[in-house]
Amino acid sequence: MPSIRAVALLDHCRKALSQQLYGMNNERSRKGCYGEFSPMLESTAKRDSRISGNENLPERSEELRQQPKSDLVLFVKPSPCNNSEHPLEFTYVFSYFVRPQGKFDPEDYALYVQPVASFNSVEQFWNTYCFLKRPADITEKVDFHMFKEGIKPVWEDDANRKGGKWILRLKKGLSSRIWENLILAMIGEQFLVGEEICGAVCSIRNQEDIVSLWNRTADNLATTNRIRDTLRRVLNLPPNTILEYKRHDDCLKDQSSYRHTNVDLPRR
């Protein structure tokens, strides 16, 4: 589990970044200037980091700034944590999926997942995250992923096959803040369920955005309910917010992530 100091640093950096991302007087920083070669990465035009303290990781910043436009994406591996960094409990990987044109078989999903970068410290997270687009700024259909290293963001992965996911449907424009709070809660080990959490997905769609949190064991009702309750707390969801759950074996049966879900009605 990350130290109390590391969790405090995560929160401090989140507040500092959010002030720039969502501040009313910083329209240019909030909207950003994005490149064409990847739906997840910001362009080299945004060269200045949104937070202080990234001078500890200049090589990572330079790798992300100089993504070649001829390639879709360059995967950036994590560097070993130095003494000044705050290590995380797990290494995580950012990736994304864009549905190919033409006929598409959901079983081929993994073939089109593009990894972007991995990280294993608080500092590496922020030095990667500040170069990624925010979900609310995306207009095309894209899935963003953040999963533990070694776990693919697909139903049939060994870590996911017997699990499922909590699903939250959002009105357009709300996904950036929810996504940020969710992944911060994950890397800050706020769910307190050991290795049960696999990863998270933010799906950008035409009429709504959908955020989901994946766990290993759908049959463990106590654990899935604890994840649900923590999810409501860390996302500061209104009491009447509806969450849904779907097992991944059901996803494999109907080849769908978000149809035929089990609705978890809010308690009165």
TrEMBL record:
Highest taxon of source: Eukaryota
InterPro entries: TIF_eIF4e-like, TIF_eIF_4E, TIF_eIF_4E_CS
Family named by the database record: Belongs to the eukaryotic initiation factor 4E family.
Disordered: region residues: 44-65
Name of the protein this chain belongs to: eIF-4F 25 kDa subunit
Pfam families (UniProt xref): IF4E (PF01652)
Gene Ontology cellular component terms for the protein in this record: eukaryotic translation initiation factor 4F complex
PROSITE patterns tied to this protein: IF4E
Single GO MF annotation: translation initiation factor activity
Keyword Protein biosynthesis: yes
Entry annotated with the keyword Hydrolase: no
Organism name: Litomosoides sigmodontis (Filarial nematode worm)
Annotated keywords: Initiation factor, Protein biosynthesis, RNA-binding
